[in-house]
Amino acid sequence: LPFHQLRVERLAEVRATLIRRGLAPATSNRCLNALRGVLTQCWQQGLLDGESLARAKSALKSIKSSSLPVGRHIPKMEMSRLFQSIARTRNPAATRDAAIMALLCCGLRRAEVAGLKASDYDRSNGRLVLVGKRAKQRQVWLVGGAKAALDAWMNLRAEMECDSLILQVNKAGTVLPLGVTPQAIYLVVQRRTA
C-alpha cells in the first residue's frame, strides 16, 4: 500500500471506521498512532511533503474519551471481614498484606504504596511522608488499626537491608530484601478481596 499516496479524505474515513466499530478509544488511538508513524516515515524518506503530512496528521487526530476508572467501593463490613481474615493467618505475607490494605484505606495510591521508603514512616507519631505526582510531598497520619498494621509489618521487616517499606514475600514465607511494584500491590488487593 503506497501510504504516501493516501488522500486526507481516506484517512478521515479510517478514523471514522474505527469509531463506528465501537473499539475502545485506546485501541483506536493505537491504530491511528501507527498510521501517523508510517506517514512520518514517508515524510522522512522524501515521499511526502510537510504540508501533506500536517493535513494527514490532522485527519488522524486522537479519539477523545472519558470513562470512569475501573474498580469498586469496598463496604466497611467487607473491609472488616477482610482484615479479620488476614489477622487469622499468621505469616509474613498476611502481615504485609494487612499493611498494604491499611495504607490503601488511608487514601494512598498503589504506586505511592509501592514507592514508600522505610525512612518515610515515623513510628513514634504515625506520620508517613509521601512523594506524589510532580514530586509534591504530603503527610498522612496513621492511627488505630492502620498504625498497628504498619507497625506489625515494620517489626517483621526490621532486619532487612532494603530501603523500600513494602517488600516481597516468597511462597515459603521468607521476606526478601526487594521492593514491590504497583502491579504487585494490585494483585495483593485482587487476591485478598476475591
In short:
The chain is mostly helical and 194 residues long. It is built from 8 helices and 5 strands. The strands form 2 sheets. It has a 3-stranded antiparallel beta sheet, with no helix packed on it.
Walk me through the structure.
The chain is built from eight helices and five strands. With 194 residues, the chain is mostly helical. Strand 4 (167-169) and strand 5 (175-179) form a beta hairpin. The longest helix has 20 residues, at 25-44. The mean pLDDT is 88.
Beta content comes to 5-15%
| Residue windows where pLDDT falls under 50 for at least 5 positions | none
How large is the count of helical segments? Answer: 8
* Helix content class: 40-55%
Give the helix/strand layout.
Blueprint: H1 8-20, H2 25-44, H3 50-59, H4 76-88, H5 92-105, H6 110-115, E1 121-122, E2 127-131, E3 137-141, H7 144-156, E4 167-169, E5 175-179, H8 182-193
Antiparallel strand pairs: 1-2, 2-3, 4-5
Helix pairs in contact: 1-3, 2-3, 5-7
List keywords for this structure.
single chain, 194 residues, mainly alpha, 3-stranded antiparallel beta sheet
